[in-house]
Design goal:
InterPro entries: Flavin_Rdtase-like_dom, NADH-dep_flavin_reductase, Split_barrel_FMN-bd
Distance between the termini: 56 Å
Keywords: Oxidoreductase
Largest sheet: 8 strands, antiparallel
Strand content: 25-35%
GO molecular function: FMN binding; riboflavin reductase (NADPH) activity
Helix content: 10-25%
Bound molecules: flavin mononucleotide
Protein name: Flavin reductase like domain-containing protein
CATH topology of the largest domain: Pnp Oxidase, Chain A
Number of helices: 5
Pfam families: Flavin_Reduct (PF01613)
């Protein structure tokens, strides 16, 4: 069994506090028809949680705490989220001689001073603990020709099989990256927040490789799209 040293004790405490009764209520609400008035708010709808697991404590940054959320229709939210056109990336890292990779679209620039990126990683993903522990990772922005790699790294393959494509190589610090990606941004974990089901990882940019003619692979409405820059809105 692999051991990772990231500290997540506060979040486990949070889950305990929610309790089995609330978990059951949340599950029942999720399964019930989407008539908001008929449902009691699920635990997460009444109280969101934010736990910082590295750096200054979240409690000292009240502006980071989310407001209480209103009852929402999850189907409507999922429909809204499907309309985001996202560049597909694969996040990659190495830990104790093992390589990890995961397709991700919840990726964003944060600021240029200091140069910082942000990635949202489900806590259950195999890359989550090693990435936080290792602290170095790469954001590979996929080219439109790399849909297969996206599919490999989002569940079709697992473990080191995700690195079957010839395009994978490693930098001088052993961080795996894709040579023919649109761009690769090498980061060091600067801060990690734990929010709901995800880790929100802030990465300080350490290096960049970029293709100056972007032909990215786009994900929208649960489909891959080849977004050619030849077609622009007049
Ligand atoms: C287009 C696309 C985008 C995704 N974006 C994310 C993301 O931003 N964060 C995340 O945690 N999972 C995301 N996923 C899901 C993971 O890639 C998928 O669950 C993966 O299998 C998790 O890794 P594991 O199998 O090693 O646990 C995305 C999947 C796809 C197909």
């Amino acid at each position: 069994m692999r051991m990772f040293s990231c500290e997540i004790s506060e979040s486990s405490g949070g889950r305990t506090e929610l309790g089995a009764a609330n978990a059951r209520m949340a599950f029942a609400n999720f399964c019930a028809p989407h008539t908001a008035h008929a449902r009691a708010p699920a635990a997460w709808q009444r109280k969101d949680r934010l736990t910082e697991i590295s750096g200054p404590r979240a409690a000292q940054q009240p502006d980071l705490r989310p407001h209480q959320v209103e009852l929402i229709c999850m189907d409507d939210l999922k429909t809204a989220l499907r309309s985001f056109a996202k560049s597909v990336t694969v996040i990659s890292c190495a830990h104790s001689g093992e390589r990890f990779a995961m397709t991700a679209t919840a990726v964003s620039e944060v600021c240029l001073e200091p140069p910082t990126m942000l990635v949202c990683i489900n806590k259950s993903a195999s890359i989550a603990a090693p990435l936080i522990d290792e602290s170095r990772f790469a954001i590979n922005v996929l080219d439109r020709s790399q849909q297969q790699i996206s599919e490999d790294c989002s569940g079709r393959r697992s473990g080191d099989d995700r690195f079957a494509d010839q395009d994978w190589t490693s930098d001088h610090l052993d961080t795996p990256y894709l040579q023919n990606s649109q761009a690769t941004i090498f980061c060091r974990v600067a801060r990690t927040l734990e929010y709901g089901t995800h880790f929100v990882v802030f990465g300080e940019v350490q290096g960049v490789r970029a293709n100056d003619r972007p032909t990215p692979l786009i994900y929208i409405d649960r489909r891959y799209l080849d977004a050619s820059l030849d077609t622009t809105v007049p």
